[in-house]
Amino acid sequence: MNGKKVLSLALAATMSLGLLAGCGGGNDTTGGGNTSTPAGNTSSGGSDTSGTTIKVAAIETSYGTEVWQQVADAFTEQTGINVELVTDKKLEDVIGPAMQGGEYPDVIHLAVGREAGLTEQFIKDKNIAEITDVLSMNVPGEDVTVGEKIIPGFVNDNSTTNPYADGKTYLAPMFYSPCGLFYNKGLFEEKGWEVPTTWDEMWELGDKAAAEGISLFTYPTTGYFDAFFYALMYEVGGEDFFFDATHYAEGIWDSQAAQTCFDIVEKLASYTNPITPAQANDQDFTQNQQLVLDNKALFMPNGTWIVGEMAEAPRADGFEWGMTALPAVTEGGDRYSYTFFEQMWIPAGAANVDAAKQFIAFMYSDTAADLFAAAGAAQPVTGIVDKLSGDNQIFYGIYDDGAMAALGSFASYKSVAGLGTTREVFFDPVNALVSGTMTKDEWVSSIKTASDQMRANLS
Prior knowledge:
This protein is of the alpha/beta class. 39% of the residues lie in helices and 12% in strands.
């Protein structure tokens, strides 16, 4: 059993034990951690950071903006470091112009997989500061290190926090969520339908639903296919196939496992509500999510944040959130739920790297975790399940119900003229599959061509 398989199993085991809930050069960032340093007024490198003002830029999501101000205020009270906070739903548009001029936030909370691909660009250009030493720093205000607070598996041997496979950490794991297929439990009870446990059962249900004018599937944007596709890769070929595929191994897309993936996505496209592609963008994605609330589509890939995101949206009578892992490829086969988590990072050109590391360390404090949990966001820290309530306790228990945890992502590669992001190559074409303007063979051919370039330019 290889290391990455052990990682996924360890994460699942940790969850079932109840430990889980949900561009330019610059400063020297290699100062070693010092766990004996009093938290708050000095950095890992020993310089005095009290009185410093750091700029923190965070994407505004369903968790809102108020919680970020609360956390920033608590951090200032604990450390004496002031925070100039910027939050916006289109964060890239807000901070992008200044960064082009060489002015960077000290801390950025912006995950990979977004349409703009800003985080991926910083990764490709190696313009993210190393933060390995943060793991050995004390959490400000607590007598425990950051590494001891974070759930095992979120910073070791995964290609998201360690995109260069060099044993070092560059992106800090933030809010995590089991991902799966979300649906209306009330509708299933009303119709007497069973939630499919295999893809064959899924297609049978799709035909039943179509007879009643209901589509089997929708998706918010193609970006949501990352978690879906990663879980599917685990199902069709296991850990070895997932690793080879996400590292663009030569010939991998000609394998039987890959063909099974492509066949399932192609068939699912034919069962997708036809209005989906037109709304699958960062402005209109909630309209696709609304299709499930209105009983116009049965399933959509999403994460636990969906409950808060659509809390004020109208819904069909008797609506009740349900969540399931992907159906198995064969009867009795493994079913997977991808563990999505967001990321926080420090641009290499940040002016206050030491103070920025203090801020990241504070993200794993009990104070911050409590504030985030109250807003519906689960930090990957031990004991988080006890801080959650309602639907989230059910969702975060998916691994207790037999689902296996999938973790990892496509490996980073250097910027190449004409070569898009993994989202553009692998997932955006799903819109064309649904609309009928691209065939599966054309999609696969473009993936093979891009993978050759990606493999040749691995970071």
